[in-house]
Inverse folding.
């Protein structure tokens, strides 16, 4: 019975993008004992991971669970040491977002030996007996990025960036993108002139790579597949230096505020929205289920090099200049103050020095 109730709660919470009171609160606050959850995330240098941390804390509080948090700042050795410390806290479940997908296998092995359940969060740990993988359909992310950009630039030279080699998601995004771009290249419609990973998803590294490619091809680049909004920002800085920003379609991912502003100004073409609030809710809900010995609901299976891992994969959504309000503002992911600016450049008390108006989808009218 518990499993059925939990499954319903997770479906309502995650798939509906619920508003108002979180259904998890109604159920889990009735529990007398507190579940102890360890959380290890790779960084808070990116806005996306700052949001994940915030939402995970909120979901744990709603579920009345104790949450112990560690941030490794993109260092696999530090992450392992931090997880060792978490395991000593007698946690029931470890939620692990690995910096290095393969190196993190030793963390999982230690947890399994201590009888601690492991949820691989957002990024899949490779070569280890993970109990559950909670993420998005990451191959589809790459397909959405490449498909959108290919419609904008059906011919010409393409530059393809991928994320960090240590991140299995980067491979999935890249595989999805090439699934779409491959046939176009084989037909001669496009030519991929550069296919380069970006260390640690670093914006400055993405800028440097783009600069080198633009110089090598004398600016003859017609589209860029950037795997996320941070790398897209670096790409666009390089395009600005060469006076072609806004002329070259650029993809992104994460729906960062800065990326939304770039989209509204015509600098970035699109981003892929993955609602980290839903992801965090799903992960904490699954942890609560696993802590009392119940298997969490799953909708897929992912092979991680050692076994078939039960997976809960959420759906990504394309965001462009036509649906920012409906997708990001009306759902509460971003506030109007974060998105819109008045003539003085003020938004939410922060002076940005930019004015944005007449955004498609702004049904309320006026300038915000």
């Amino acid at each position: 019975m518990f499993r059925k109730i939990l499954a319903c709660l997770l479906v309502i919470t995650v798939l509906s993008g619920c508003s108002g009171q979180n259904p998890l609160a109604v159920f889990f606050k009735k529990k007398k004992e507190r579940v102890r959850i360890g959380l290890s995330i790779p960084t808070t240098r990116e806005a996306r991971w700052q949001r994940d941390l915030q939402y995970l804390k909120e979901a744990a509080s709603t579920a009345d669970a104790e949450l112990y948090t560690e941030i490794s700042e993109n260092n696999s050795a530090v992450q392992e040491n931090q997880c060792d410390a978490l395991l000593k806290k007698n946690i029931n479940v470890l939620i692990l977002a690995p910096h290095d997908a393969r190196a993190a296998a030793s963390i999982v092995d230690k947890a399994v030996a201590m009888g601690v359940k492991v949820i691989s969060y957002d990024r899949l740990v490779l070569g280890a007996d993970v109990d559950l993988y909670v993420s998005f359909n990451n191959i589809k992310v790459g397909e959405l990025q490449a498909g959108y950009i290919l419609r904008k630039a059906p011919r010409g030279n393409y530059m393809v960036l991928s994320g960090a080699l240590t991140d299995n998601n980067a491979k999935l995004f890249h595989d999805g993108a090439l699934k779409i771009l491959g046939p176009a290249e084989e037909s001669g419609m496009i030519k991929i002139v550069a296919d380069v990973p970006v260390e640690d998803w670093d914006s400055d590294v993405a800028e440097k790579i783009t600069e080198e490619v633009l110089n090598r091809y004398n600016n003859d680049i017609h589209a860029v597949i950037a795997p996320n909004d941070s790398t897209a920002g670096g790409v666009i800085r390089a395009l600005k230096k060469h006076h072609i920003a806004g002329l070259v379609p650029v993809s992104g991912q994460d729906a960062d505020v800065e990326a939304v502003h770039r989209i509204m100004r015509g600098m970035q073409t699109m981003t892929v929205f993955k609602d980290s609030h839903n992801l965090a809710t799903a992960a904490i809900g699954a942890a609560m289920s696993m802590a009392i010995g119940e298997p969490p609901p799953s909708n897929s299976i992912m092979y991680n090099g050692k076994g078939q891992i039960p997976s809960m994969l959420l759906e990504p959504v394309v965001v462009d200049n036509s649906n920012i309000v409906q997708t990001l503002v009306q759902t509460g992911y971003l506030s109007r103050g974060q998105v819109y600016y008045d003539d003085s450049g003020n938004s939410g008390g922060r002076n940005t020095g930019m004015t944005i108006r007449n955004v498609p989808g702004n049904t309320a009218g006026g300038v915000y």
Observations:
- Residues 1-5, 11-23, 342-368 have pLDDT under 50 and may be disordered.
